[in-house]
Amino acid sequence: MTSSASPEKMRQAGQFTAVAALAFWLLCGLQPLMVLEAEGAAPAMQSLLAQPAGWLAALLGVLAAVLGLRPSGRGASLGLSALAGLAAIGWLQLPPAQAAAPAAAGFWLGALGLGALAILTIQRCAALEGRRFDAALAPLLFGLWVLYAWQLLTVALEVPRVLLPPPALVLQALWTHAATLGGDFVQTVLKAVVVGWLLGSGLGFAVAVAIDRQPFLQRGLLPIASLTSTVPLVGVAPIAVMWFGFDWPSKAAVVVLMTFFPMLVSTLAGLQSAGRLERELMHSYAASYGRTLWSLRLPAASPFVVGALKVNATLALIGAIVAEFFGSPTAGLGFRISTEAARMNMALVWSAIAVAAVTGSLAYALLVRLERRVAFWHPSVRG
Question: Which is nearest to 114 in space by CA: 86, 72, 139, 136?
Fold first, then answer.
């Protein structure tokens, strides 16, 4: 196994993008960087050379683009990513990127050069092979470049913070309100989501096994389960609040209702996926239903069950947050989002959204790891 991609593959990965990045950086030095506005004087244009951080960032960008013109291996690709990252950091130090002065053509040409370098670094890192870290490097770079573009554009274009706050402001709100968001996390995730997810998934699994054991139950239980899955969340949440109160049990009840049917359907499909020859072999050995279920049918259903758990993890988080919009104590991610949005405190709103998004992503990643351990034999997992 090689530690990097072949030179032919690397030569094809973004060579035209490197030429475009080099052209943008060279044109950047020929255009004014920003507009200086002084009281009682006409606006003046300032060039790139007047800003040490600017010409240093442009120099690093040119070096990264020149390095991208050559076919490179793993070390050169990492070096290219490092140069592009340093150029991006330097570009953030300029006054237009800090809302201290209006941006001119040179600033936007440099931003286009950074965009071309972002595409180039992702292409080069995606072409790497051979190490486990290499597989995660391209998605990591993609996420970082998206956050960088969000920060640069929202500040330089002076986007109102009510519409879209920059990531730096969201991180500041996360740090400032860490204790508040921690309490919201406990209220929504550790109480409502986890309890509802476990109860709903467990109930769906148990009913699926009961239906499989007694097929006549399918005519009575499946239509009812299907009916519960079609009830709109905006109609269930107020009723759950009236039945179970404003605290987390009402949110857990909504989550149970949302996660029950996906687990039921997936488990039934998984139990039916066991091969006919294998079932006949168990029958020829006079194996009981319980033995057949434990030794053959549940292992065959494990990919379906874990798949339903992954789907339910996201449904549970969404259901609990939306349910908190219709009545909640003074804590919870949904309560925080609705309350702070009414106050136009959008930085804290986006902080709560970020907590929910990271929680959902981590839960999904943990369940993927569980799937690899439980259903390691399945072709989709082996692949």
Answer: 86
